């Protein structure tokens, strides 16, 4: 994983660069200035001329009183992302001076780069807002019994300070608890839609803000897409009605950096989409698509570990020059044989 470390004087970076068609070797890159890495507005990235990887991961230091939730929001990261990237750090009470990884390096989803793309397993929204630019923000999606549907739709109406009508199922649940829900919740601090909402062509589904931003980056909604208030406000002002919205579910992504390094990211698959889904085969097919007809020099043990323990980190899959090949009786004929050999 490539890491930039934020210090009062700037950033230090160690970058692995892939060389050649078969082997990748590491090399030190020049240290970028903070303003060079963060020159675009929040969530904005220049689309690479080659490859499909954006951003760089980096670390920040916890200050007294910070929570990981505070740090995640400040750095455009959601709950699950910050938790998976820092499994040994307390979410609510991290020690001061602890280094926290900000997982900001991402492989773009394998889909048409047009309008808004929502990747459910990744819990992220991508917006291809103008030529050469992509924006990305953490989101919340529907929990298992209220899953967000997959498909292509579009934005329709935008509403500022929307009123919210709790669905009948929620009112029944509240009544069963002895807490009758109102039929309409007006705009204000108690409104779970927040101050901005963008309606979708799928009836009853919206992209909206929230009055509980600590839940952004989790599966907590009843199917709608939730965003941090500052992120939905920005989109609200700029996304035209009729914008294409592609809701996909890609728990595994693979792509090249501009320097020739093959990276992959793996996320926990949504329970409701697991029927007939074999994560390892899905990942291998994605890698095969990236390479085309060539036999990839992939570290299959690393690939398997990535799929079996998904944490959203961008990991290099190419074998390094230092790795000595293990003699085998015969060359593998395809990816599936390769991973079987790697497991021997």
UniProtKB/TrEMBL annotation:
One of its GO terms (biological process) is peptidoglycan-protein cross-linking. Pathway: Cell wall biogenesis; peptidoglycan biosynthesis. The keyword DNA repair does not apply. CDD domains: LysM, YkuD_like. Coiled coil: none annotated. The active site is at residues 208, 224. Pfam families: LysM, YkuD. This is L,D-transpeptidase family protein. It comes from Halomonas alimentaria.
């Amino acid at each position: 994983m490539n890491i930039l470390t934020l210090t009062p004087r700037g950033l230090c970076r160690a970058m692995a660069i892939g060389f050649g068609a078969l082997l990748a070797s590491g090399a030190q890159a020049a240290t970028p200035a903070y303003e060079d890495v963060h020159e675009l507005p929040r969530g904005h990235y220049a689309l690479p001329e080659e490859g499909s990887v954006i951003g760089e991961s980096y670390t920040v230091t916890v200050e007294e009183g910070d929570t990981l939730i505070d740090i995640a929001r400040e750095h455009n990261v959601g709950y699950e992302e910050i938790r998976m990237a820092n499994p040994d750090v307390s979410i609510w009470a991290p020690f001061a001076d602890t280094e926290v990884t900000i997982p900001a390096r991402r492989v773009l989803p394998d889909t048409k780069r047009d309008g808004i793309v929502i990747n459910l397993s990744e819990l992220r929204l991508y917006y291809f807002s103008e030529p050469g630019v992509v924006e990305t923000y953490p989101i919340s999606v529907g929990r298992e019994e209220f899953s967000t549907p997959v498909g292509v739709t579009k934005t329709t109406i935008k509403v500022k300070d929307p009123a919210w009508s709790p669905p009948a199922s929620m009112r029944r649940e509240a009544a069963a608890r002895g807490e009758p829900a109102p039929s309409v919740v007006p705009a204000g601090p108690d409104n779970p839609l927040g101050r901005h909402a963008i309606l979708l062509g799928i009836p009853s589904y919206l992209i909206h803000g929230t009055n509980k931003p600590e839940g952004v980056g989790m599966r907590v909604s009843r199917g709608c897409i939730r965003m941090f208030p500052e992120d939905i406000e920005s989109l609200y002002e700029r996304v035209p009605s009729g914008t294409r919205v592609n809701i996909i579910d890609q728990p595994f992504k693979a792509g090249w950096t501009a320097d020739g390094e093959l990276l992959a990211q793996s996320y926990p698959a949504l329970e409701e989409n697991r029927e007939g889904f074999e994560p390892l085969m899905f990942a291998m097919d994605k890698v095969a698509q990236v390479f085309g007809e060539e036999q990839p020099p992939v570290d299959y043990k690393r690939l398997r570990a990535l799929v079996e323990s998904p944490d959203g980190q961008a990991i290099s899959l190419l074998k390094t020059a230092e790795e000595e090949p293990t003699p085998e009786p015969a060359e593998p004929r395809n990816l599936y044989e390769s991973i079987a050999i790697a497991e021997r």
